[in-house]
Amino acid sequence: MNTSEFDLQCENLTKHFASVRAVDGVSFDIPAGTFFSILGPSGCGKTTLMRMIAGFESPNSGDIKIKGKSVLDTPPNKRNVKMVFQHLALFPMMNVYENIAYGLRCNGASKSVIKTKVADVLERVALPDVAKREIHQLSGGQKQRIAIARCMALDPDVLLLDEPLGALDLKLREAMKIELKLLQHQFNTTFVYITHDQSEALVMSDHVAVMNEGKFEQIGTPQELYHEPVSAFVAGFVGDANRWSGTVSAVHDGRVQFTTAQGLTLNGINKGDAHAASDTVSAFVRPEFIKLSDANLTNTNTTAGNNNEGHNSISGRIDSLLFNGANSRLLVRVDSNELIEADVTLTGGLNDPKAGENVTLVWPHEQTMCF
Amino acid sequence: MMVSDGKKLGLFLLFTPFALWIGLLIILPHVGMFILSLKEKVAPRVYEYGLDNYINFIQEPIYWNTLLRTGVMSLLVTVLTLLIGFPVAYYIAKIAGKRSKGALFLLCLIPLWVSDLIRAFGWILLLRETGVVSKSLQSVGLIDTPIEFLYNDATVVMGLIYTVVLFMIVPLVSTLDGMDNEMIEAGYNLGGSRLTVLRRIIVPYAMPGIVAGCIVVFMLTAGSYLTPILLGGKNSSWFTEQIYDQFITRYNWESGAAFGFVLLTFTSFVVWAGLRLSGQTLSSTVAKS
Lengths: 371, 289
Ligand SMILES: Nc1ncnc2c1ncn2[C@@H]1O[C@H](COP(=O)(O)OP(=O)(O)OP(=O)(O)O)[C@@H](O)[C@H]1O
Ligand SMILES: [Mg+2]
Prior knowledge:
CATH topology of the largest domain in chain A: Rossmann fold
Number of domains of chain B: 2
Shape of chain A: globular
CATH superfamily of the largest domain in chain B: MetI-like
Bound molecules: adenosine-5'-triphosphate, magnesium ion
Mean pLDDT of chain A: 88
Distance between the termini of chain B: 36 Å
CATH topology of the largest domain in chain B: MetI-like fold
Strand content of chain B: under 5%
CATH class of the largest domain in chain B: Mainly Alpha
Low-confidence stretches of chain B: none
CATH class of the largest domain in chain A: Alpha Beta
CATH superfamily of the largest domain in chain A: P-loop containing nucleotide triphosphate hydrolases
Oligomer: heterodimer
Distance between the termini of chain A: 34 Å
Radius of gyration of chain A: 25 Å
Shape of chain B: globular
Order of helices and strands of chain A: EEEHEEEHHHEHEHEEHHEEEEEHEEEEE
Structural class of chain B: mainly alpha
Number of domains of chain A: 2
Low-confidence stretches of chain A: 296-306
Largest interface: A-B, 24 and 18 residues
C-alpha cells in the first residue's frame, strides 16, 4: 500500500514523564480526508499524544509520519499540522482578520493573497462579516469557528482538535458536533479529534481509537466499537451498558455460563480471551437489547434463570422510569437487589410500564458480552 | 431609591480615606507649593506674585540642561531596565516551575528589604578606589593602580537600574502570568518563528505590563535623589539635586517649589508622550497589570 494514502501515521510512539508512561507504544494510520477521534478518560495521555504530533513534546521512542515523511526532526512551526487548542488560544490583541492573517504572514504570503484567503476561509465557516470584529465581540460558537478558520487558511495536512468543545455549554456542544462534521466534509482535510465524551466521538467520527493509560485499546468504526468491543474497558467506556462481574461455571463452544456475586446465573458469549471454569468474567449488556417479556412469560417464570431458549431472563420490579421521549429508560430492581437499565419505547398508552410494576427482563445470550 | 442611597453611602464611606489621602497628602501640598512657586522676594519679607521663578529657570541653561540630562538618563535607565527585566519576568512567569516561581519572586523582593541608603553604601563599598572590585582586580593582576569606579554616569545608571528593576519585574510577571501558554504554542503552531512569536504575540500581550512598569520606573528614576548623589557625586547633575540645592543650600523655597513643578510637568509630559507612542491609555495599563 502506498504510504502517502495516509495523512498521519504513528509507529510505536512512547513518551514518559519521569515514572509516568503518558503514551505507551501507540501505533495508528489515518487515511487521508477522514475524521479520526481519540477517545479516552481524563489523564490517559491524549493531550500528550497530540502535543507530540504538533511537535511540542518529543517522543522517547517511535516515529511520526505526515504524508509518509517522518517529522521528528521538524520543529513545530515547520510542521504542516495545525492545532485547535482546548481554550482556542485566539490572540486577544488582534482582530479576527489579523488572527487569520497571522499564519499566512508567517508563511510569507503577499498582502493580496492574504486578503483573498481570509475572505475565502471566513466565507467557508459561514462568518463572512466578522473580519473587523475584536475577539471578545464573538460568541462562543463563533470563536470556535474562527479558531478552525485560522488553521484551515493554511491548508494543513492534518488538523488537530484538543477537546475544543470542552468550554462550551451543552446546547452549543450539540450544535457544534454536527457543525464540525460538516466543516470536515467541506474542507476535506483529515481531522484528529480528541475527546473524553464518547457521544461526541461516536457521532462525528469515521474512525475512533479508544485510549486507556497511554495505550490504544481498540481502533475501529463507531459501530465496531459499540457492537464488537475487544476489551472490557472499551465495552464499558463506549456507550451505556449494564455491567456484571462473576465467576464462570461452565464453558462450551464460545458460550459462557457465569454466576454473579449476587447469585444471578447468566449466559453470554466470549468476546475477549477464552475462559475456563472458575475464571472471573466481566459481562456487559447494552440497555437497548433488554426487553420486557410478554405477560404469560412473567407468570410462568418468576425466578431468575434462563428457561427461555437462548435468552437470559430476570424478574424484578420497576424502580423508576426515566422519561426522555423515544430514549426513555427503565431502572429495574431485580430480586438480587441490583439495578438494571433497559430501554423502552413509551407510547403514552395504558400499556406503558409504570414504576412499581413487576416485570421480567429478557435478552439474547449473544448480547451478553463477556471478557 | 433606598438601595441606591445605601449604595451611595457605602461608596462614600469607602471613598473617604482615599479622598483624605489624596486631598491632604497630595493635592494640598501641591497647591501650597504652586502658590509658593509664584511668589518672589523683592525685598526682605516683601513678596510679589509673578512668574519670575519660572522665567529664571528658562533663562539659566544650567537648570534646564540638568533637567534634560535627568530626562535622558532616566529614559536610558527605563529602557535598560525593561531589557533586563523582561527576560527575568518571562523566566519567572513562563519557564520556571510552579514551586521555584514563588522563590524566585521572593528573591527579587530581597533588595527592597534593605534601605536605599544601605544599598547605595553597599555599592560604594564595592566600587570605590579602595573597594572590593578594585582590590581584587589588583590582586589578580589585571590592573596595576587602583581604579575609581564611582562618580561616573555608568555607575549611576547601574545603581539606578538595580534600585528600580523590581518595579519593572512585578507588573511584567503579573501580565505574563495571565497569558495562557496555549497562546504561545498557537503562535508557533501557525508557523511563527521565535522572533515572530515574541514580536507579534508575547510583547503585544504584555504591553499593558510593559507600559505600567516603564511609567513607574521612569517616575522613580527621575525623582530619585539618593542613588545619583551617592554613586555619582557632584558630577551626577541630577535635577533633584538642584531642587535640594534651592530649598536647603540657598534657602530659596520659592525657586525650589518652581523647580519641583517643572520636574512634575516634565515627567508627566514624557509619560503622556510615551503612552501616545505606544498606543496605550493610562486606564488600560493600570487596569490590566
Ligand atoms: N509535562 C508533564 N510532566 C509530567 N507529567 C505529565 C506532563 N504532562 C502530562 N503528564 C502526565 O501524563 C499523563 C497524561 O496526561 P495528558 O495531559 O496527556 O492527559 P489527557 O488524556 O489529555 O487528560 P485530559 O482529558 O484530562 O486532558 C497524566 O498522568 C499527566 O499527569
Ligand atoms: Mg488533555
